């Protein structure tokens, strides 16, 4: 009985995975001309870039210097550095930057209250039409701000996301994330055509200030504030667009432990956000409600289901069949599920190939192979740690 | 300022196209998978047929009158034949065990292959008794009656027999699935011939041993 249930579950997961892979592939082919951004004309209204900081001594100077090289008209550019009660010399460094870029950069200091509270502090003091949020360890391309603000010529656009890339990937763990980030740029661009962008990422996103009046400020209790605000904007049916070319480079975890910590925070925050916005799971929200929003949750459940099935097969010994039966496991053991898995794998590789055509940056084939082979294992590990932490009620900070 | 909201819609066209393509690929995938699986069974069936032919050839050899033919030459040929046949039987047993774990013991094609295999083993077992008689007991024969359903110590017994077989090159082990007793004439015949009523039961060179026998006990009957 259990065997049959597991088999049916595996086929359901295989069918859904195949569906999503083909859906993305067709969407990429259908929108192949729209993916490339056409210049919508220059639009450079006053903008405030808010950079929340917590113990960023030695990092913030570089971030601000790179930002100030931007081709955005300086008379319309304000930079708010908000120190969230750092215990190092971050605020002194900010003051130096304030002096250096007088008239553009302003330093604020507040009591520690978390990343969202620092962003909100800045939003409440900003008077410009547009507001950007920039992580303190992210470096903006000279043309990116202009590219992103041009979206706001369309009065219906409430937020725009950037093309986040990994800053100088050297180690294998960074190179694998590099592939992941590049593919996310294309998939997020595709999602914007379905009005289904699920996150306005911390590294760089631009908002129309009025959206905060309509939906409220960043949630200071959320573990994943950049996703929470995006869900809230979507829940109010406002438009979020996504850029393919407005690059921003960000520092990513360089160790396996740091990567786990980051992804577990994303997972835990994500779960809370799902629960908070469960009303989106409805045809009233179109493609977002019926496919993109549930996809994240179904995907996570599928990852865990595959993990537990593998664990069971490991415990009952069938995973060790190779040692007992040798190569006949492969040539006698090939069944329908493996054929479908092979098709899904081939289509995924095809999608990566099609998606990479839209990117200016080249991806190393070895990194792609590593990404394809190891990423599912990594995602499983992230989810197991997430469950462990959820069950032990461990608190998490930004 | 009134801000225009997004008009939500479900992209039906792309969903319908996706669903059709997914269904098509899924069906083709399942079809290919089933084809591969059936090819596997037909390939094993071919191997079984080949083994049946080998077994038949050995049977023919035993019919030769030893008085008109030098018995040492005949016995050498028979012994070589039995040894290579035993290796094939062992591989086939492992193949079927794998198929059983893959498709389940209730799969009809697996059951049919198993019956055919058990029949062949039973014939080989009987043939070996005859060769032992003719050629001065060159082999130590073990008939092992087991059950997958009603026998908690059969797994352990299987491991002991594998270890025992490894220790002695002339030990020939033949396993008989008692769950197939009603479907295989040969298994029914052998079990009634040796009065086998429970599992595990071992026929060690003609001696009936009921219950679990460890390697030490098996060795005591070997000498």
In short:
The complex is a heterodimer of chains A (398) and B (223). Chain A has 398 residues and is an alpha/beta fold.
What this model shows, in words?
The complex is a heterodimer of chains A (398) and B (223). With 398 residues, chain A is of the alpha/beta class. Chain A contains 15 helices and eight strands. In chain A, helix 1 packs across helix 11, helix 1 packs parallel to helix 14 and helix 11 crosses helix 15. The longest helix of chain A has 30 residues. The radius of gyration of chain A is 22 Å and the shape is globular. The mean pLDDT of chain A is 89. Chain B has a four-stranded mixed β-sheet, sandwiched between helices. Chain B has 223 residues and is of the alpha+beta class. Chain B is 64% helix and 10% strand. The mean pLDDT of chain B is 85. Chains A and B meet through helix 1, helix 8, helix 11, helix 12 and helix 13 of A and helix 1 and helix 2 of B.
What profile does the largest beta sheet of chain A have?
8 strands, mixed
The assembly state of the depicted protein chains is: heterodimer
Secondary-structure element order of chain A, N to C: HHEHEHEHEEHEHEHHEHHHHHH
User: How many DSSP E strands of chain A?
Assistant: 8
Name of the CATH architecture of chain B: 3-Layer(aba) Sandwich
- CATH topology descriptor of chain B: Glutaredoxin
- The overall pLDDT of chain B, averaged over residues, is 85
**What is the general shape of chain B?**
elongated
Number of helices of chain A: 15
Order of helices and strands of chain B: HHHEHEHEEH
Reported by name, the CATH topology of the largest domain in chain A is: Spore Coat Polysaccharide Biosynthesis Protein SpsA, Chain A
Strand % of chain B is 5-15%
Instruction: State the fourth-level CATH superfamily of chain B.
Output: Glutaredoxin
Q: Regions of chain A with pLDDT < 50 over 5+ consecutive residues?
A: none
Strand order of the largest sheet of chain A: 3-2-1-4-7-6-8-5
Q: Strands of the largest sheet of chain B, in order across it? A: 2-1-3-4
* CATH structural class of chain B: Alpha Beta
Strand content of chain A: 5-15%
């Amino acid at each position: 009985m259990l065997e049959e249930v597991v088999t049916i579950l595996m086929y359901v997961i295989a069918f859904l995975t195949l569906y999503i892979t083909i859906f993305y592939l067709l969407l990429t082919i259908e929108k192949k001309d729209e993916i490339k951004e056409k210049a919508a004309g220059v639009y450079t209204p006053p903008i405030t870039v808010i950079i929340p900081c917590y113990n960023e001594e030695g990092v913030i100077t570089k971030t601000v210097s790179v930002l100030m090289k931007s081709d955005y008209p300086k008379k319309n550019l304000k930079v708010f550095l908000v120190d969230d009660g750092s215990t190092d010399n971050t605020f002194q460094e900010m003051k130096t930057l304030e002096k250096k870029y007088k008239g553009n950069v302003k330093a604020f200091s507040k009591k520690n209250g978390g990343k969202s509270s620092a962003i909100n502090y800045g939003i409440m003091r900003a008077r410009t039409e547009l507001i950007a949020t920039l992580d303190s360890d992210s470096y903006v391309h000279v043309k990116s701000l202009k590219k992103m603000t041009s979206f706001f010529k369309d009065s219906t656009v409430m937020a725009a996301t950037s093309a986040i890339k990994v800053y100088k990937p050297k180690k294998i763990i960074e190179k694998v994330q590099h592939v992941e980030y590049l593919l996310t740029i294309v998939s997020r661009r595709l999602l914007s055509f379905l009005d289904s962008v699920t996150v306005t990422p911390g590294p760089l996103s631009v908002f129309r200030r009025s959206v905060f009046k309509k939906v409220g400020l960043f949630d200071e209790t959320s573990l994943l504030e950049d996703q929470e605000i995006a869900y809230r904007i979507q829940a109010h049916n406002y438009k979020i667009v996504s850029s393919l070319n407005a690059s921003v480079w960000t520092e990513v975890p360089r160790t396996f432990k740091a990567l786990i910590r980051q992804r577990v925070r994303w997972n835990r925050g994500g779960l809370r956000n799902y629960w908070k916005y469960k009303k989106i799971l409805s045809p009233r929200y179109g493609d977002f409600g019926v496919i993109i929003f549930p996809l994240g949750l179904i995907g996570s459940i599928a990852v865990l289901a595959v993990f537990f099935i593998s664990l069971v097969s490991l415990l009952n010994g069938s995973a060790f069949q190779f040692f007992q039966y040798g190569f006949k496991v492969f040539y006698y053991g090939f069944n329908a599920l493996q054929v479908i898995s092979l098709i899904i794998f081939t289509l995924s590789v095809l999608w990566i190939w099609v998606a990479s055509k839209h990117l200016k940056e080249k991806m190393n084939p070895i990194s792609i192979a590593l990404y394809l082979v190891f990423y599912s294992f990594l995602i499983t590990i992230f989810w197991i740690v997430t469950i462990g932490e959820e069950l032990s009620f461990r608190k998490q900070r930004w | 300022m009134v801000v225009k909201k997004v008009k939500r819609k479900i992209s039906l066209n792309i969903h319908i196209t996706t669903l059709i393509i997914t269904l098509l690929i899924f069906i083709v995938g399942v079809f290919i998978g089933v084809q591969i699986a059936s090819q596997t069974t037909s390939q094993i069936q071919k191997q079984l047929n080949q083994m049946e032919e080998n077994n038949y050839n050995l049977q023919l050899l035993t019919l030769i009158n030893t008085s008109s033919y030098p018995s040492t030459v005949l016995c050498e040929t028979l012994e070589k034949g039995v040894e290579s046949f035993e290796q094939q039987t062992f591989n086939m047993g492992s193949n079927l065990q794998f198929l059983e774990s893959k498709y389940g013991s209730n799969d009809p094609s697996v059951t049919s292959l198993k019956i055919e295999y058990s029949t062949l083993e039973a014939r080989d077992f009987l043939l070996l008794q005859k060769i032992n008689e003719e050629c001065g007991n060159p082999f130590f024969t073990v008939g092992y009656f087991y059950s997958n359903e009603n026998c908690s110590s059969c797994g352990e017994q299987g491991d002991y027999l594998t270890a025992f077989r490894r220790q002695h090159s002339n030990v020939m082990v033949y396993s008989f699935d008692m769950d197939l007793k009603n479907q295989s004439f040969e298994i029914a015949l052998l079990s009634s011939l040796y009065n086998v009523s429970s599992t595990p039961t071992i026929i060690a060179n003609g001696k009936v041993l009921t219950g679990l026998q460890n390697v030490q006990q098996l060795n005591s009957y070997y000498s």
